[in-house]
Amino acid sequence: MMKLKACRLLLMLAPTLLPALAVSGEAALTETTLQASHQIFSVAGGKDMDALKCTTPQRRKSPERRPTPSQGDNRKQDPAPAGSEEEIIPLSEEEEAAMLKKALAPPSSEELRRNLPKSEWIKKFHATLSAASRQRIARVGIWGGSHMAAEFFTTEFRQALQERYGVGGAGHINLLYGRPGLNLPVSAFCRTGEWNEELPPRTVNSPKIFSGLGLYAMTANSPHAALEIDLRSTHAKYRAHQVALHFLRQPDGGTFDLIVDGENLGTLDTQGPRAIGVVEIKALMPLSRIELRVSEQKSVTLLGLFAEDHQGAVLDNFGVAGAAGNYWRGVEPELFKAAVSQRSYDAVVLAYGTNDVTGNNWNPERYRQDYRQILIAMRAAMPQAACILITPGDRVTRFYVKKIVKVKINKRKTVNKTQVTTHYDLLTFPQRHAQAAAIQSELGDEYQCMVWDMSIVMREMGGAYALMKRSPPWMANDLIHLTPAGYREMARRFVGWLDLSSGKAQ
């Protein structure tokens, strides 16, 4: 399986045989069984290397966003809606007052009461993490969409966890880095050659993908493709003493070289029965760099990279912009369970909803059925983990109203001119998100999950429109995402709700 070159120690753990996997659309693999292989290297670490420099992966351009006229700033205006000689004007005070009367009402005292966590579940959450962190790494995994992928919310959450239970490392380093809206807790990530990413389908009946814990796969199909990651975070406290790489073993798998701190440890072969493969590097001193170089014209599929210390707490952020809850139903469940068996979690956080309630035909009852299946899939893999659900926050949509006005040029001449007024729908998506949050709360009780209703928190603060008009704003101009300051504020409120802001555990 491996050609050793400079490895100090290699421990081969016996593969664990799991139930057979029914593979969609691959008749040649009908007798494939799932296995997990785990290899461990011990290295010295502590090598002082120059900072990694590379070209940041090219990001796709985000759609142009229109600045909000009502903010009265001096930012350059985006193009007006179709048509020439159009002028965008802000709402008048009367128009804004009329619009606000149509908004969803602020949360009632009963809604606020329901959003308080159950004290016994909070105690269980902390007891679980406290016991784990005294013996090993206490792991919390968080899955969600762009709100989590941006890292502003999760950075605050991670810091609070580690202040309470010890600094256990940066955790998951998302190999999809380069996608819009995805940030990492590491200094530098270089990718060269051709890499293809795969995400689960949103539709239930589509073929499932082979993924790891992050619900994604990153595949190189050509030689000379490489990844190089600087493990030294911008914070020295995140120096990693151990790193785990998850990859896919597959019948047509290729090979790659593993290089740690400039030392080539060997060539790994990913060919074999469909399985989760794990390479773990343990060091006496902090590690500086890990590099992977594909060796041949065969597929090498990577499923995740994890950096941590020996003890404390780790938050693995699996957020991906655009992700939906149905991702959990779009991966092969037994392979995901095999990944969990290699890296288990004491607590799981699901932060879905914004991408699940779009479209003209959204149906609350269908959403309830879909979300139940998501929780079933999560509990099938992690039946004992403490669980928290974060609902979608408040959201507002913008639309434009055109009208023709007569503009006097001089005493004799007037011309018709188009004016465009920006209006906001403060009801449709706030209502949907409130309904989705209520459904999550109902199902959370059934599947032993605490629920933090972010839509209630944001509505208590005035809602998305009011947060956008703050100075500085807490809501981005798209009225879906928050600003960095807004995410940090939401995270601080979540941390307080979770009783994580009270310092170190006793």
Biggest beta sheet summary: 8 strands, mixed
Whole-Å distance between the termini?
A: 46 Å
Based on secondary structure, the structural category is alpha/beta
- Can you tell me the CATH architecture? 3-Layer(aba) Sandwich
Whole-number tally of structural domains = 1
CATH top-level class: Alpha Beta
Radius of gyration, in angstroms, nearest whole number = 25 Å
CATH level-four homologous superfamily name? SGNH hydrolase
What features would you describe in this structure?
The strands form 4 sheets. Strands 2, 3, 6, 8, 9, 11, 14 and 16 form an 8-stranded mixed beta sheet that branches. Strands 1-13-12-15-10-7 form a 6-stranded antiparallel beta sheet, with no helix packed on it. The chain is built from 11 helices and 22 strands. Helices cover 25% and strands 29% of the residues. The chain has a single domain, classed as Rossmann fold. The protein has helices spanning 93-101, 109-114, 119-135, 146-149, 152-165, 333-342, 364-381, 428-446, 454-460, 463-468, 484-497; strands spanning 2-4, 10-20, 33-43, 86-89, 137-144, 171-173, 188-192, 195-198, 217-220, 226-230, 242-249, 255-260, 263-269, 275-283, 289-294, 300-308, 312-317, 347-351, 386-390, 397-408, 414-425, 450-452. It is of the alpha/beta class and 506 residues long.
